[in-house]
Write a structure and sequence with these properties.
The protein is of the alpha+beta class and 166 residues long. It has one domain: Gcn5-related N-acetyltransferase (GNAT) (Aminopeptidase, 3-Layer(aba) Sandwich). It has four helices and seven strands. A seven-stranded mixed sheet has the order 1-2-3-4-5-7-6, sandwiched between helices. 25% of the residues are buried. One of its GO terms (molecular function) is acyltransferase activity, transferring groups other than amino-acyl groups. InterPro entries: Acyl_CoA_acyltransferase, GNAT_dom. Keywords: Acyltransferase, Transferase. This is N-acetyltransferase.
């Protein structure tokens, strides 16, 4: 039997798993430049705010279980940026290497085109070579490199901006 991946809009029942995925990224990686775990209320507020702004949060279900999520928001809170979105894709540590990130990114790109956005941005820690190469496969190109803008795990972090014209 083949493993079935399903992409769908996130639901409130996904929030505990999304929180687990977020917290793994916060505590163990430089994918998120935050230091502290998110609690249930934080994730509920984030979910509610994304819905109010009509911004998508999608999940990839692997054999029926939420295995990863992706979303995008307006790149910066100024009127002139309203056609540019910055996206995020996170996969649960137990489900990496199964094509879930690819499914999520492909779905986000498609959704952004349908929603008439002009360009997508990815902000990636410069040491995350896997994510940089992954984004290149989907047509993202490096457009900026910011040195020492983040600080986590007792070291300065560089940020790479990648962009895909839609």
């Amino acid at each position: 039997m083949h493993n079935i991946l399903t992409i769908r809009d996130a639901e409130e029942t996904d929030l505990l798993t999304i929180k687990e995925i977020m917290n793994d990224a916060v505590l163990n990686t430089t994918a998120i430049y935050d230091y502290y775990e998110r609690d249930e209320q934080y994730v509920k507020n984030w979910f509610s705010n994304m819905q109010k702004q009509s911004m998508p949060i999608i999940v990839c279900a692997y054999e029926g279980k939420c295995a990863g999520y992706g979303c995008y928001t307006i790149f910066r809170p100024k009127d002139g940026y309203r056609f540019c979105v910055e996206h995020s894709v996170y996969v649960h540590k137990d489900f990496r290497g199964k094509g879930i990130g690819a499914q999520l990114l492909t779905a986000l790109i498609k959704r952004a085109k349908v929603d008439n956005y002009h360009t997508m941005i990815a902000g990636i820690d410069a040491d995350n070579k896997f994510s940089i190469e992954f984004h290149k496969k989907y047509g993202f190109v490096e457009v900026g490199y910011l040195k020492g803008v983040g600080y986590k795990f007792d070291r300065w972090l560089d940020l790479v901006f990648m962009q895909k014209m839609l």
